[in-house]
Amino acid sequence: xxxxxxxxxxxxxxxxxxxxxxxxxxxxxxxxxxxxxxxxxxxxxxxxxxxxxxxxxxxxxxxxxxxxxxxxxxxxxxxxxxxxxxxxxxxxxxxxxxxxxxxxxxxxxxxxxxxx
Length: 116
What we know:
Helices cover 73% and strands 0% of the residues. The protein is mainly alpha-helical.
């Protein structure tokens, strides 16, 4: 698909202003998403250490299935594509499991946990 890209001088100033306002909002939302993900991963790291100390498996398929179903419902209620939400959560879950496996391996090998 080809779109025209007029120089900024050809765009109505009101359109440029609205575009800038919307992009500022997008930038703020992106920052909030990153901070929320960081907080989520701090919590899941703690879960990983707890699981490792008690020799629990890194993955919990039943919990993951419940979380996916829950997120799909939240997405539907928010008018967000539930398939997209599921893909996003699956990506996060895979990263969490990778972290938990690493933490478990470090625990077995006697590597001290890092401060979060």
